[in-house]
Amino acid sequence: MGKETLRNELLKDLSDAVVDMDEDKAKETSQRVLDEGLNAYDAIINGLAAGMVIVGELYDKHEYFVPELLMCADALYAGLDILKPHIKPEDLGQNAKGQVVIGTVQGDVHDIGKNIIKMMFEVAGFTVHDLGRDVPLEKFVEEQMRTDSDIVALSAMMTTTMMGMKKVIEMIKEKNPNVAIMLGGAPVTKDVTELFGADGYAESAGNAVQEAIKMISRLREIHK
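RE: above sequence
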């Protein structure tokens, strides 16, 4: 079998593994990519991530719901764990050095959107420091300073917890005005982002998942 045919077959298997929520298939195929000497980053972007874009379309059509999304993400992660250590720095370009601190703000335990956004940063080659959920506000500031991360991504799903974001932004910008701060979650809008002094937000009707999937699509455009 020619290398191109083999590549296409394995990419399709990776994509199918994600869509079919098949962790074992994702692991086996990822290992085969390495055994055959194919490019790990290509397999992530055009295999695993391509599958997640299809999952996003199924979600939009209401054929898949949040539980399916999470199982698809588990399959993607299973493959990512095997392939990620084999990404070559030259495949990533200038993204390779990026670091992100991510978490759901104090009082908020929703983390589906946050987890999928985290995965996108990882796929793009960023080092992610995940603080989890219900994170004390000052922890974001401490972690940014400890890691000297370029981006801090804050998530909130409730209007009450969203107010905590404003405080975090003020604390971080005071110490390090160059950090890019990204907000996400249902109550967050462009106006809120500007009012709080953040640099960007995951725009979606209450669903960071859509935004993450859009981010995958954009990543794939860049790396075609």
